[in-house]
Design brief:
heterodimer; A: mainly alpha; 3 helices; B: two-stranded antiparallel sheet; two-stranded antiparallel sheet
Chain lengths: 121, 130
């Protein structure tokens, strides 16, 4: 049973968690693109990867905290730091990443499937 | 994941509210005694002080409207029924150029939220293929 959910599958599921969380944050940035004093937030991939790798094998129950980085671009006169172009580009990039991770998981399960079905012959 | 849809929905509603106010301003550009209206946006805040940024990401809310407090534009027209003692009428301070720029900004923001919704849909549908 341990072989079904090995490190690859776990890492990929953490990667999907990353893309989904990031998408929620970016959607919130776009919804608030005219809100005064709103600062855009995002996640970094290195941080999520480190968190996923370090979290392996640890059974303390507490995950290392997610670090959100707030944009320190020059704010607009009303204090808002959301750049609509930047947010849409990030969202599209995140979408592509998400599709890639889903495809990788599909391939992994297909490998397992073929291993199971081949062994019947 | 699907509460990203609700978040984008709040963005759409907020921009639509703003567009309604802009239309109202334009329609009342020649109404005596009308004060220009504008919208106040605020980010949706979570009730819990230690909530992470993810939990507080509920979108934008319309906190209220403001009325422009600047002085009226005084037009000299003694034959106007609403003219005051000196023959001046109080006209609103509405510049159609400013309102049109705001309208374009609001509709761009509306479109950006639509893009966010279509990306949410694409990601959620892709996830069902696993």
């Amino acid at each position: 049973m341990k072989e079904f959910f090995d490190i690859t599958t776990n890492l990929l599921s953490k990667a999907l968690e990353y893309t989904e969380t990031r998408h929620r944050l970016l959607s919130n940035n776009i919804a608030n693109l005219d809100t005064p004093n709103y600062k855009a937030v995002d996640l970094t991939f290195e941080d999520a990867l480190r968190r996923a790798v370090e979290g392996e094998g640890r059974r303390r129950g507490g995950k290392p905290a997610l670090v959100f980085y707030t944009s320190n671009a020059t704010p607009d006169p009303d204090g808002n730091t959301v750049e609509i172009e930047e947010q849409v580009m990030k969202m599209i990039e995140n979408n592509i990443l998400h599709h890639s991770f889903v495809n990788l998981i599909k391939m992994k399960f297909r490998m397992l499937e073929s291993a199971i079905s081949e062994s019947r012959r | 994941m699907l509460d990203a849809l609700r978040t984008s929905g709040t963005g759409l509603l907020a921009q639509k509210f703003r567009m309604n106010l802009i239309s109202q301003n334009l329609a009342n550009a020649n109404t005596t005694g009308y004060r220009r209206k504008d919208v106040i946006f605020g980010a949706f805040e979570s009730f819990f002080p230690f909530a992470s940024a993810v939990e507080s990401s509920k979108g934008v809310s319309v906190l209220g409207m403001t009325e422009d407090k600047s002085d009226y534009q005084m037009i000299y027209d003694p034959h106007h029924p609403a003219a005051n003692g000196e023959g001046y009428v109080e006209m609103p301070n509405i510049d159609p150029v400013v309102e049109m720029v705001n309208l374009i900004t609001a509709s761009r923001a509306y479109e950006a939220n639509l893009v966010a919704i279509s990306v949410t849909k694409s990601m959620a549908l892709k996830s069902t293929e696993i």
